[in-house]
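Question (not urgent): is this output format expected?
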Amino acid sequence: MNDDREHQELFKNIAQFVLDSRTLIDKGAMVEMAGLDKQVQGLCERVMELSDEDRIKYAGSLQWLLDELNTLGKELTVQREAIANEIRYLSSHKKANVAYKTADAKAELVDSKEGN
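Got this back:
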């Protein structure tokens, strides 16, 4: 019975972490995933220790968790790609800004040489 409670508690903690992470991503926040892989690995190891009867008992919950983890992975990929695009844009924007400043400085230099 104690093992059953531990399995349920671990599952509950992982499920809550995934749901909280998805909520944060929806709000545009960065999510720290440190430790999730170890929790999921621990759950998988515990599932492998279960009897066939207990595996069947948890099958629906585990499938739900797998689907949620896959969805979270996709959302993290979308977020990562958006950030990468933003970084590329900022880099291009910065280059353009430097080019404009350089052109403006050259124009001022030419104007000052011409006496304007």
